[in-house]
Design brief:
Layout (H helix, E strand, L loop, with lengths): L9 H13 L10 H10 L3 H14 L1 H4 L11 H11 L5 H13 L3 H4 L10 H24 L15 E5 L16 E5 H8 L3 E3 L5 E3 L1 H4 L5 H6 L18 H11 L3
Antiparallel strand pairs: 1-2, 3-4
Amino acid sequence: MKKGQRLWTRDELILAINLYCKLPFGKLHRTNPQIVHLANLIGRTPSSIAYKLVNFASLDPSLQARGIKGASNSSKLDKVIWDEFYNNWEELPFESEKLLSKFERKSIEELNNIDSKSLPKGEERERVVKVRVNQSFFRSSILASYNNTCCVTGIKQSELLVAGHIKPWSQDEKNRLNPRNGIAINALHDKAFENGLMTITTDYKIKISSILLKKRKTDSLEKYFFQYHERDIFLPSKFLPDEKFLTYHNNERFKK
């Protein structure tokens, strides 16, 4: 460590991973306003934040699988905290949001634009807040990974996109917030995906169910479904869909 530098703390690294999840891979640079903001919050330089995010990229298995490398000198603590976060999606995202609210000096409800007046009281309030915060984190992570692009159509309009689960929320509590269990997709195709009328194969191709393919060809079916059959999806820049979740959807949800 160079003279004058200070060691990163666990809290700082968790905040950095939180930001890593929410930023597109191509925006991990020191001039990004979100990086500058985090630097100001924790008393570090934007360059040090950006470099740490690139360190985390080197630990991201979905990037490693594609031969994309970040910085190669991540510390032992970087890996420990990365593994802690990456292997505990059901708890660490919410912990990171609570930590961020502390540094921002805002309530977690205010930080996540939750109307506190509409919330119930007591333990039910805590449960509802956690669910909404986690849903917001998941959506931010998915849209960032896909650069606000629908994986089916290529539409680049976040208001029209859903952060869809590959393995449903109700089926796998441990991976509800795992970005590799998510896709950015428009609302129509999300509904079709959810109901097994389309799927994504493990080689990232779109397949349309025979239920639709056997229907009489119409302009609307051609426009919204048939033209995408066997096409490649628009891949995310990070958090590539995990093969095990795609396999589940192909075998258990897709109506062949």
